[in-house]
Amino acid sequence: MNKYDAVVVGGSAAGLSGATVLARALRKVLVIDTHEPRNAPASHLHGFLSRDGMTPEALLAAGRDEVLSYGGEIVQNRVANMVRSSDDDSFVVHCEDGTVIETRTVLVATGLRDELPDIAGLREQWGIDVLHCPYCHGYEVKNTAIAVLGGDNRPFTMHQALLIRQWSGDVTFFPNQIVLDDAERERLTARGIRIIEGDVARVVATDGQVSGIELADGRVEKRETVFVGPRFIPNDELLTELGCTVGENGWVAVDPAGETSIPGLWAAGNIVDSPAQLITAAGAGSKAAIGLNHYLLAQDVERAVAATNDLVGNR
Q: Model's pTM, two decimal places?
């Protein structure tokens, strides 16, 4: 089997950042990536210092080039499962195409997936003018007629409705399945947000752009931009199948450096931190890689001491 110091599962901001740090530390590192980034529908990224306005694919291409330039390896594949080696504390990584890889450590950065409310037309406009993060896209849609749609992620949606008012004076909240209490209604109204009750039937698009929100009773409210709160589902099956501790919030628990409850196994980015922006995820990947390298260093020192003692004992 191929043997690595570290395998990074996931090749977006967190994974590529971590792989670059490890490759620069002269570790033998392999990135396994499906090339299916969460932000693929978006035409531009924002909030990443010196890269504002770049396409997501251009950022990842630059990151891949950096990993390769320092001797790291990258393959397009999907990891089916991981197991602990029976011989030591290393890991055996099985890919869907049958490739088997042995590695001393693993950094999992497979992100999360967005589960949108079941509203017609919503998915088709996702990442174009149906959005969820005002810090990522609010400036680009400032002063437009914005709709905020209620969904399954109630706390996120309520916060989102109040927050998005910073970017536009024309915000309409459609509670949809959310039943507002008096205090919530008072806060929205005081913020200058219009509330329209009724089930949302469809996001209306004209010539590829959002033009309105259609209610179940046939009413259509003209809108130009939609914000919605998805349910954030971590792609953490590789971690949970290995038995990583899960916190009270339902997400895999990691220490400040990103190490899970299993020695030698790290996680970084949206897989353990749903609000993480691209730049935050990249930082988390870097931090995890440093912690991972220190873990490897401790092993290297222990092995060197043991080898020295064996040599002295055999004299």
A: 0.94
